[in-house]
Amino acid sequence: MGLRLLLLPLAVAGCADSAQSGPSSTKENTAMSDTPSASRKAPPQVEPVVHAGVRYEQDMQSGKHGGDQPGGYLVAIDPASGERLWMLKVYQVPTQSDAPFQPGRYFRSMKLAADGAHLEIENEVGGKYLVDLAGRQAEWVSGPDSVHQHARR
Fold first, then answer.
1. CATH code at 86?
2. pLDDT at residue 142 above 80?
3. C-alpha to C-alpha distance for 143 and 70, rounded to whole angstroms
4. Annotated region Disordered: where (predicted)?
5. Per-residue confidence (pLDDT) for residue 7, from 0 to 100
6. Which of 64, 75, 103, 140 is the most buried (most CB within 10 A)?
């Protein structure tokens, strides 16, 4: 019986030591895990535009199809087959040479223009672009744009 009494105070002392070092919770353990954390919010969800038998959407898979930057691409898709018809770089995403991870710049909104021949696209920082669907060309309209900002300096 004496042995049990000696072990019980040691077990309690061990609990007291862990209580002094702070509470151990699932939240704390998760925060201390090696799971990477997001450095930015997820890109905005922009609904595709279907026009004249083609679905236009922000290309979130551009890197697998020859894209050279995160974001800024539009893809035209045949809705019946799911086949990619073409991809267009709408705007240049500025790079940060000192950053190990290059943050993307994604669409904030996209809609068919009143003329039915263009898409109006706005990116996350307010740059506005007009995409000629027949000519497959993008034109900067207003707002922040990495190419035009450098040209103005």
1. 2.40.10.480
2. yes
3. 20
4. 16-47
5. 46
6. 75
In a domain, 37, yes or no: no
Looking at the structure of the chain, the number of domains it has is: 1
pLDDT of residue 148: 57
| Dist. CA 52–CA 119, nearest whole Å | 13
Question: What φ, ψ does residue 18 adopt, rounded to 5°?
Answer: -70, -30
Neighbours of 132 (CB within 10 A): 14
3-state helix, strand, coil in the chain (%, to 5): 25, 25, 50
Q: Identify the burial level of 131 via C-beta atoms within 10 angstroms of its C-beta, where 0-12 means exposed, 13-18 middle and 19 or more buried.
A: buried
Res 16: pLDDT: 45
Residue 93 in domain: yes
Which run of H or of E encompasses 12?
Answer: helix 2-20
The reply to whether 56 falls in a domain is: yes
pLDDT recorded at residue 41? 78
Q: Is the pLDDT of residue 21 over 60?
A: no
User: Is 119 inside any structural domain?
Assistant: yes
Given pLDDT bands bounded at 50, 70 and 90, which one contains residue 51? very high
Asked whether the beta carbons of 124 and 110 are under 8 A apart, the reply is no
* Short-list 51, 105, 60, 99, CA closest to 78: 51
